[in-house]
Amino acid sequence: MLLEKIHNSGIVGAGGAGFPTAKKLNAQAEYFIINAAECEPLLKTDHYVMKNHAKKCIEAITSVGELVQAENVVIATKGHYHEEIAALEAAISELNANITIFKMGNFYPAGDEQVIVYEVTGRTVPPGGIPLQVGCVVSNITTMLNVYEAMILDKPLTHKLLTITGEVNEPKLISVPIGTSFTKCLELAGGTPLTQFIFLNGGPMMGKIGNHNNFDDQVVTKTTSGIIVLEEKEYLYSLHERQISQIINQAKSSCIQCTLCTDLCPRYQIGIPLHPHQVMRHLSLTDVPDDIDDDPVWKQAILCCECGICEVIACPMSLSPRQVNIYVKNRLAEKGIRYKYNGEELVPKPMREYAKTPPKNILLKMGLEKYVNYKFDEMMEYESEEVFIPLKMHIGAPCQPIVEKGQKVMSGDVIATLSDEQLGAPIHASITGTVQSVGEQLIHIKKDVAV
User: Fold this and answer.
1) For the whole model, what pTM was predicted?
2) Which CATH number does the domain 385-451 belong to among 2.40.30.170, 4.10.480.10, 2.60.120.10, 2.40.50.100?
């Protein structure tokens, strides 16, 4: 019953790729781990959820822990989140919940799913595998808030909590209907003093970059976690937007094989056989892209979590091992080549604790340290006049529309769905109004004007 409610509510992971939550929770596990680490610097929505909706989250976590029959239910967060931990502990005590809080250090990427599993259990997820293979299911704290609303209120996922920060006049947390334009979100944060700017859809490290020219085309999806508006900086462009041909040529000519990209790689540190420096060296020995094939060195790239430590912190030559890994992964995927774990022992590195990257180092390197101390104590709720709802907002197949132009819809109505055999989650109208258009990628809904 709970799984059905979660699926019917259209819940997917609140950040990242948006894996359908009902699919992930349809399992039995020894550990149910809640990711409350707020992995990306500058994003603050998980902080707000923990401080203001702790009891709701604990109720949902308890129910889901029973669903997956977990012997251990653990909230993994950073030890210096004192207010958040106090709120969670108070809710756990009030509800007499059998939940423990695991306090991690302040490092990036603490919220990486496989890193969290290792921190909590000491187990390394097999290369190319998932946490369930070592007895764990991992879900985000804000996803649990969405589960509560589905479980108790029968409320589908129609709104997103976002951090709007950077070069904006009034940095703030907002709750807006899915499909709200980024332009409106920026207005809610008082706009920006910049006439030309770049923006990150997500966090500084793994967010997707754009600029003022395509900002108006962006809309909030189920996985949007934040919008960071910044001055145009060559470093950020080179980090996120350099042409792959330029990246490859620089790697071929400038990589000094210092191995720092490997030494500081969070996946390598927990025993995953990923060696970015070997992938970089392979570039100089082969003809790209023709020679990217079923080769054990190339296939290491599949194991990359794309956290960006290698290029932001590690490489002394300002090269981009992450972008190379992404390129190689895509070429291998096109050929249907996958990584196959050979069963070798996975040995975490003894110096791992000393190789962790503090978030402040990332912000200093990226020139973003001045945004660290913004305070986000309240959440602004806004109801949009119109929304443009994407039909693909998660891993798996895109949804197919079941509404037509001119049709009246209520907020929470299902407007797009997919078959039971397909991986995904239904999509709901996020406002009440009339369907203006139904396209291959978007459904446009506008509130009716009172006469």
Assistant:
1) 0.95
2) 2.40.50.100
